Amino acid sequence: MARLQILEYPDPRLRTRAKPVEVFDAALSRQVEDMFETMYAAPGIGLAATQVDYHKRLIVMDVSEDKRQPQVFINPEILTAEGTGTGEEGCLSVPGIFDEVKRAARIRARAQDATGKVFETDLDGLAAVCLQHEMDHLEGKLFVDYLSDLKRERIRKKLDKDRKERASKAATASAARAY
Ligand code: GNR
Ligand code: NI
User: What does the pLDDT profile of the chain (179 residues) look like in tens digits?
Assistant: First the structure.
């Protein structure tokens, strides 16, 4: 198992449209395991392959309290969507930013598991929100795209500043170690 690097906004690779998974082999299983390890370590409740620079239609999720209910969605489709709800969202690719997004409240989805077996499932609450958020990633879309241009620009500047601060702190720590 390995932890993968999570791409951060505005990395242009997050805008890639993922391609269908066609081969369900050992390499795919390894990718699923590495994505679970990365998601749990972050920590997050979902992770789309796009976020780890792997441009296939693959999502891992665990919205449970005990973090022992892993779910894999490969080549997911939304069959039906009902109602709407607004909730606060965050994203591992937009660290430290949270804002309200409107989504369908209940969805029925069809997807394949890591062995290629097709299944259907009804989702509501956080699971419904999370799958819609993850499916957006596979289309190259981020939750900040639903916000105003002004907000998105402010977010981009804040993340830039945060990254610069992190880099300068790391440089100071490394200089201190060398001394
Ligand atoms: O960990 C995550 N939490 C979250 C909270 C509200 C709505 C969506 C999410 S998904 C996010 C992990 C992530 O970025 N997945 O792409
Ligand atoms: Ni996300």
Answer: 899 999 999 999 999 999 999 999 999 999 999 999 999 999 999 999 999 999 999 999 999 999 999 999 999 999 999 999 999 999 999 999 999 999 999 999 999 999 999 999 999 999 999 999 999 999 999 999 999 999 999 999 999 999 999 999 998 888 888 88
Residue type, 105: A
Q: Quick one: DSSP state of residue 77?
A: E
Quote the ligand 1 centre to 48 CA distance (angstroms): 10
16 CA distance to ligand 2 middle (Å): 14
Q: Which ligand 1 atom is nearest residue 133's CA?
A: 8
- Looking at residue 64, its amino acid is S
Q: Tell me, yes or no, if the pTM score tops 0.90.
A: yes
77 is catalytic: no
| Residue 110 and residue 120 in contact, taking contact as beta carbons nearer than 8 Å | yes
Alpha carbon distance, N-terminus to C-terminus of the chain: 35
User: Residues enclosing ligand 1, CB less than 6 A?
Assistant: 44-48, 51, 89-93, 129-130, 133-134, 137
The string of DSSP letters for 140-179 reads: T--GGGGS-HHHHHHHHHHHHHHHHHHHHHHHHHHHHHH-
For atom 4 of ligand 1, the residue with the nearest CA is 90
